[in-house]
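Thread: Cytochrome c oxidase subunit 5C, structure

OP (GT): Posting the sequence first so everyone is looking at the same thing. Length is 63 residues per the record. Can we get the structure tokens written out before standup tomorrow? I want them in the notebook alongside the other entries.
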Amino acid sequence: MAGSKVAHAVLTGPSVVKEIVIAAGLGLAAGTLWKMHHWNEQRKVRAFYDMLEKGQISVVVEE
């Protein structure tokens, strides 16, 4: 009684080039999101100081 042959997937080691490309892509995506967040915060701060300079807002509490 001979057992039937079952085709198994051949497991290979990690592909260094593929891992470098994936890591670079993820790094660029994360960096882009971080810069967009940073630019948005800068825009908010700049708008705050522009309004403060124009006298539209004040940091002094009115009584």
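GT: Both are above now. Quick notes for whoever picks this up: The mean pLDDT is 89. The chain is about 60% helix and 0% strand.
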